[in-house]
Design goal:
Structural class of chain B: alpha/beta
Strand content of chain B: 5-15%
Largest sheet of chain B: 6 strands, parallel
Distance between the termini of chain A: 59 Å
Structural class of chain A: alpha/beta
CATH topology of the largest domain in chain B: TIM Barrel
Mean pLDDT of chain A: 86
Radius of gyration of chain B: 24 Å
Strand order of the largest sheet of chain B: 3-4-5-6-7-8
CATH class of the largest domain in chain B: Alpha Beta
Helix content of chain A: 40-55%
Oligomer: heterodimer
Mean pLDDT of chain B: 86
Helix content of chain B: 25-40%
Number of helices of chain B: 16
Low-confidence stretches of chain A: 251-277
Number of domains of chain B: 2
Number of strands of chain B: 10
Order of helices and strands of chain B: HEEEHEHEHEHHEHEHHHEHHHEHHH
Strand order of the largest sheet of chain A: 4-5-6-7-8
Low-confidence stretches of chain B: 410-434
Largest interface: A-B, 55 and 60 residues
Number of domains of chain A: 3
Number of strands of chain A: 8
Order of helices and strands of chain A: EHEEHHHHEEHEEEHHH
Distance between the termini of chain B: 64 Å
Shape of chain B: globular
Largest sheet of chain A: 5 strands, mixed
Chain lengths: 277, 434
């Protein structure tokens, strides 16, 4: 690990901004002690340098990485950048340096701490993205499908292609509450935009009926003799449950509005609830 | 009867079908109005029994005219009956798909009137989905044994995956328990499907949806524990079917008692879940780890060890092949180390190109060493602090649940099929040779 200069870098938070910062770090031949995105500043003792995003420079760094270590290395860097790894910018700065020095071999240096950390962060991010491909639940109202997600990593860019291909003739919005991002799609056109405080419209009768049918399907398809809550929990961790229509009465606080009409035997159900302490 | 009731009845009667995978097919969604498929498959939720739900798994109808003893939907059983109309089913599928509840549809059916009529109803549902809705998502369709080959052909052109259930592991059992089905009526459509899949154009670019026949291949399912066949017999059958019919998957379904009949296990019998689990483990060894059925079991050892997994069992019986040097062993041998999986081995092979691997290095790769450490060396050295002590070896080689069962005196569920291995023998097998 190279010596750190007593300086902090700030960038605009975008990937291009980060690559411009990498360029700046090389140009000045200095490695900052701290890097943080604009808006996420911390109190530091070092002088703070703001690095302007420069598309041309970021493009040069991007091409340099691919030329030296291949597209897979760039893929790792992009995924790690989307992850919530601690001090990911410093980590990636080191990783990019290794890529330039060692070439494609860097990918195999899994016993190296930096390579290991980047690979793990990228993997965690991809894993969460894969989970979200399955666990996202849309509400349909007025020809628009909406959903709100709260991922740990900024997975939206990673799942965008999937959902745009899946619903190519539809209109939909996926709002990432954690990172303040929204994916907007309307019949062939898409946009990834910054967004705050988006609230999906309340469910109408059709939507409630669809949820009621789905909940019924979910409850019926399980085989009682094979009941295995531990297995379910490990495959579908609890942090995803608030997304899932079918899990709403199994979490304490329902995040979605009440699901449709009353069940077939409302009296018996209510009675049970009252009796249980 | 309203849709809610129909869905309840037809889900309940389809739930014993095992396959709920959406893998093996890949399309980006261009060309379809709604829907794509992803080759690795996507799980949309997990049911309370821990099984993945990726498809809307229902029967077209459970008003079956057949009388298979092991099946809840047999004609002689007193259950509620329901039948979807093709339009209802297609609308339900699209409604669920839009909300991202599912990857697609798994469509099976009891035999209504006759196999041809049943098959035609299924085809109509899929036609509405594909043609009227332009649906490009995943469809798994069951071929109905005894249906006309032209209908099977049409069904296969609308589906991503086809399957024919082999139901029971032997001819005799089938004759005894499923009098309306014959081995021929099951194997014939299987052969037909295999041939049609082989005719698919090689180049993906040439494959428009209409030209492809079941692009995600063919699978089958059989019931374990309803009849007395040994694990060896079942595994050999699976291995033969993988070869002969180029199957993508064989699914094993632990028999859950649904009928009181002297030919079947008692209604109180628990489903042989551990046995099913061992069969799946062995199935993976056949498909991804380069094992042959004969290496895992033979005529004298015809059932799996209840305490350790099949690979570990193989390793304990072939200690002369161990320890394996992680830095030099070939892929084939690394795959045979207990505790190493396909992903772990790939990472090892990748990482050792960059330099020698140590035990610490292995840990960084995310390779689990709990079992493997007894079977490997790194640069000639065994794992530091490795204790060859009875308790710790048992703890390392058995899963938690097996260890608990072993300590409390063993499982009940396998006793139906084999006398329980002697406790002493098991200890010897696990520790004596190490």
């Amino acid at each position: 690990m190279p010596d750190r200069s007593a300086v902090a870098y700030v960038y605009d938070g975008s990937f291009e901004g980060f690559l411009s910062l990498v360029f700046e770090s090389w140009r000045k031949k200095e490695t900052p002690s701290v890097i943080f995105p604009q808006g996420g500043e911390q109190l530091v003792l070092f002088p703070v340098v703001f690095v302007e995003t420069d598309i041309e420079r970021s493009e040069r760094v991007r091409k340099g990485i691919v030329r030296a270590a291949g597209a897979e290395a760039l893929g790792n860097i992009e995924c790690c950048f989307l992850s919530n790894a601690a001090e990911k910018e410093l980590l990636l700065l080191d990783y990019i340096r290794l890529c330039i020095a060692n070439g494609p071999k860097t990918l195999s240096m899994l016993a190296d701490n930096t390579v290991c950390a980047v690979t793990k962060a990228a993997r965690a991010c991809l894993r969460e993205a894969h989970h979200y491909k399955g666990f996202v639940r849309f509400s349909v109202r007025g020809g628009v499908m909406t959903c709100v997600i709260e991922p740990k990593h900024a997975v939206l860019p990673l799942i965008a292609d999937h959902f745009c291909g899946r619903y190519s003739w539809e209109n939909f919005i996926i709002y990432d509450k954690t990172h303040g991002l929204a994916l907007l799609y309307s019949k062939g056109c898409r946009a990834l935009v910054a967004a705050q405080g988006f609230e999906p419209p309340p469910a109408d009768a059709d939507e409630r009926e669809a949820r009621r049918l789905w909940k019924l399907f979910y409850d019926t398809v399980a085989i009682e003799e094979r009941d295995n809550p531990r297995c379910r929990m490990s495959l579908m961790p609890k942090r995803f449950w608030s997304l899932l229509t079918e899990m709403q009465d199994e979490t304490e606080k329902p995040a979605l509005p009440q699901l449709g009409r009353l069940p077939a035997q409302p009296v018996a159900r209510v009675g049970e609830q009252e009796l249980s302490p | 009867m309203d849709l809610y009731e129909k869905l309840r009845i037809l889900t309940d009667s389809a739930k014993y079908d095992v396959a709920c995978t959406s893998s093996g097919s890949s399309s980006s969604g261009t060309g379809a109005r709604i829907g794509n498929t992803v080759s690795c498959g996507i799980c949309h939720t997990f049911a309370a029994d821990g099984r993945c739900v990726s498809l809307l798994k229902v029967l077209m109808s459970n008003a079956c005219v057949y009388d298979c003893l092991y099946c809840v939907n047999r004609v002689s059983n007193d259950v509620e009956r329901a039948t979807f109309t093709p339009r209802e089913l297609a609308d339900l599928t699209i409604g669920f798909y839009k909300r991202n509840f599912i990857e697609g549809l798994f469509l099976s059916s009891g035999v209504v009137k006759n196999p041809d009529y049943t098959c035609e109803r299924m085809i109509e549902s899929l036609r509405i989905l594909r043609e009227d809705y332009g649906f490009g998502g995943y469809v798994h369709a069951k071929a109905i044994p005894g249906a006309d080959s032209r209908l099977i052909e049409r069904l296969g052109c609308l589906a991503d995956r086809m399957s024919v259930n082999i139901e029971l592991p032997s001819h005799e059992s089938l004759r005894l328990l499923a009098p309306d089905k014959s081995r021929e009526s099951i194997l014939k459509p299987m052969g037909l499907i295999k041939e049609r899949i082989a005719e698919n154009p090689r180049s993906p670019a040439l494959r428009s949806r209409a030209q492809r026949f079941a692009p995600a291949g063919q699978s089958t399912q059989l019931i374990v524990g309803a009849t007395p066949e040994s694990d060896y017999r079942i595994l050999s059958l699976a291995a033969a079917m993988y070869q002969k019919y180029a199957l993508k998957r064989v699914f094993y379904s632990a028999y859950i008692p649904v009928a009181d009949n002297p030919l079947l296990p008692a209604v109180t019998a628990k489903p042989p879940l551990l046995r099913e689990h061992r069969l799946y483990q062995a199935d993976w060894l056949l498909r991804f780890y380069g094992f042959e059925a004969d290496e895992l079991l033979d005529e004298t050892h015809c059932n799996f060890n209840e305490y350790v997994d099949p690979k570990c069992n193989w390793a304990l019986n072939h200690l002369d092949r161990f320890p394996v040097e992680v830095n030099t062993a070939d892929r084939e041998m690394l795959l045979r180390v207990p505790g190493f999986g396909v992903t772990g081995v790939r990472r090892i092979l990748q990482a050792r190109r960059a330099g020698k691997l140590s035990f610490d290095g292995l840990k960084k790769l995310g390779v689990t060493l709990k079992r493997a450490r007894y079977f490997i060396t790194c640069s000639g050295k065994a794992a530091p602090g490795l204790v060859f002590e009875h308790e710790s070896i048992l703890r390392a080689l058995m899963s938690d649940s097996c260890l608990a069962a072993y300590e409390s005196g063993g499982y009940e569920q396998l006793s139906l099929f084999s006398p329980r291995p002697d406790r002493e023998d098991t200890v010897k097998c696990l520790t004596g040779q190490l």
